[in-house]
Amino acid sequence: MVQKGDVAPDFSLPSDDESVVTLGDLKGKKIVLYFYPKDNTSGCTTQACELRDSLPRIDEMGALVLGISPDPVSSHRKFRDKYQLNFPLLSDEDHQVAEAYGVWKEKSMYGRKYWGVERSTFVIDENGVVLEAWRKVKPKGHADKVTELLGASS
Questions:
Q1: Tens digits of residue pLDDT in 12-26
Q2: Options 44, 58, 63, 150, the catalytic residue
Q3: Using CA atoms, how far apart are residues 34 and 130, in angstroms rounded to an integer?
Q4: Catalytic annotation present for 49
Q5: Can you give the residue ranges of every domain in the chain?
Q6: Contact criterion met (CB below 8 Å) for 95 and 104
Q7: Is the model's pLDDT at 133 over the cut of 70?
Q8: Nearest Cα residue to 23 out of 64, 62, 58, 60
């Protein structure tokens, strides 16, 4: 399980724009890496839209936002276009990256158990070290916590 102070596990994942994003290629920039369960659900939409609206401040602080879920690229494109999201959404269909970060968890809803993403955010510094790891994130207001941390670490 990835924690504050760990080196962030590297990965390469397909993006909503048909490119492949490799974390290691982004060294030298701060990264806000957030894992979310599913495109077009209420909590995930709230979180994505708050990050979208905070992106100018996040950009000013020299950071990039990357969203990751197990949804396919085609779903990410529709989600991005519907809400004018201005950062890459990466597809982790086999959930290997979610597992590497320790966010692929057994969950329960209405008595039914299943596996899925635990909403989590990792802020990674320019050298690939995790500055902060938030787990079981509440979507509303989380973008403010991200910008506060980035401002404090600038």
A1: 999 999 999 999 999
A2: 44
A3: 12
A4: no
A5: 12-153
A6: yes
A7: yes
A8: 64
